[in-house]
From TrEMBL, chain A:
GO terms for molecular function: ATP binding; ATP hydrolysis activity; phosphate transmembrane transporter activity. Part of the ABC transporter complex PstSACB involved in phosphate import. Responsible for energy coupling to the transport system. The keyword ATP-binding applies. It is found in: Cell inner membrane. PANTHER family: ABC TRANSPORTER I FAMILY MEMBER 17. Pfam families: ABC_tran. It is a peripheral membrane protein. The keyword Nucleotide-binding applies. Its main location: membrane. SUPFAM superfamilies: P-loop containing nucleoside triphosphate hydrolases. This is Phosphate import ATP-binding protein PstB.
From TrEMBL, chain B:
Belongs to the PhoU family. One of its GO terms (biological process) is intracellular phosphate ion homeostasis. Its main location: cytoplasm. It comes from Seohaeicola zhoushanensis. This is Phosphate-specific transport system accessory protein PhoU. It comes from the Bacteria.
Amino acid sequence: MNMYDSPEREAKLDQKATKISARNVQVYYGETHALKDVSVDIQDKTVTAFIGPSGCGKSTFLRCINRMNDTIDSCRVEGTILLEGEDIYDRRVDPVQLRAKVGMVFQKPNPFPKSIYDNVAYGPRIHGLARNKAELDDIVERALRRGAIWNEVKDRLQSPGTGLSGGQQQRLCIARAVATEPEVLLMDEPCSALDPIATAQVEELIDELRQDYSVVIVTHSMQQAARVSQKTAFFHLGNLVEFGDTDQIFTRPQDSRTESYITGRIG
Amino acid sequence: MSAMNDKHILSSFDRDLESIQANVMKMGGLVEAALANAAAALENRDVELAEQVRAGDKAIDALDVTVKTEAARLIALRAPTAIDLRLVLAVMEISSHLERCGDYAKNIAKRTLTVTGGTEIEGAHGALRRMSRYVEEMMKDALDAYIQRDVAKSQEVIARDAEADQIYNTLFRSLLTHMMEDPRNIAVGMQLHFIAKNIERVGDHATNIAEQTIYMVTGELPDDDRPKQDRTSLTLQEGPIQ
């Protein structure tokens, strides 16, 4: 058989490239061992959901991916996390540059107390992505369009971002995160403060963002994980218990702890 | 998996699941009784019992509708996942299989009313009764295995279908022989053959129920590689055994 049409090769082509590769990641907060030996490959152009009960380590792991844990003094991270093959914990890596590549959206919409325009322009300005006003206008418009909020705000770009509704604020924050052309978008419960309609809009947006980015979302809503993600990771007591295709995790999980958690039983 | 026996945090979810399963088991009980009564009515030429079986199918059909409605409600309101989802899907399938078996029992009863009073084919009624007992046993075990979530028992039910097919083959050839010997046997022989086929189909549905149990427990349907013993579709070329 010709090696070029072997099924193995086709299966390989079908697989998406690995964006983030974590190996044996341990996180300690002082004496507390919060994340235990997590190894996982996160694919490009895929939505990966992290689920698990409170305190399971899912947010801790998410925050490792853009070194948000650096800001916590007692926090110690071991193991390696590669972004496109580069160790993000290498001493030469500037965390500020890293966070431009790995954007983050938080639980509560947190627009700066500035205009809608300046909220989005902030990142491109500090990273010097625009040479002049016209270029910056372009970047802002493109980001707001990607954030699926352009039509709602194009006539009031100078109004304060804080004056928008909760759902609009969150989409503004997503637009702000994509303005620096990141490679990865991290979302920590991006819809938990939103009503169902705003949630649906953000979920639709997440699905669109998947065309260009690797999206990692932490969510307490298992239905949301099921709706928006292609891969799901279940964390429990600091361990990555199970990682697999979302449809497999929700129809036939392999681990009994996953089964107990997603079916709403006491594990 | 010990965690599977744990209760849901939301106890009303457990009550919904239990209710839907209770209705399926009730259906199973009615179907088993209908099959046993249909076969007994045939053997004893009991017209009254045959009429009872015919009338009783309504209750089975109604339960099928109840189960499907409850399942739709559970999917809409509870968004079941994993074992819960597989349970609901399996319950819907099993309900359909049982409903069909109820129809077979009803059909046997109808044909019983036709053949009663006609010529009798020697030994056929007894053989049908034996075959019926055999598939009733399969059905009972399939339902027990479902309730006990017993994969081994389900596999054993699936394996037993080959024997049901064998019994049917033998009966088919015997009926064919009688009909060839004396054309006056044809009218009754045809009816009895339909009855035999109905009973044989019940064995197939018991097998399908067993497969659903395996799906529910493991998440995978077993391969459909059991040997097919029903060779009657080839019989015209081969001719009956003398």
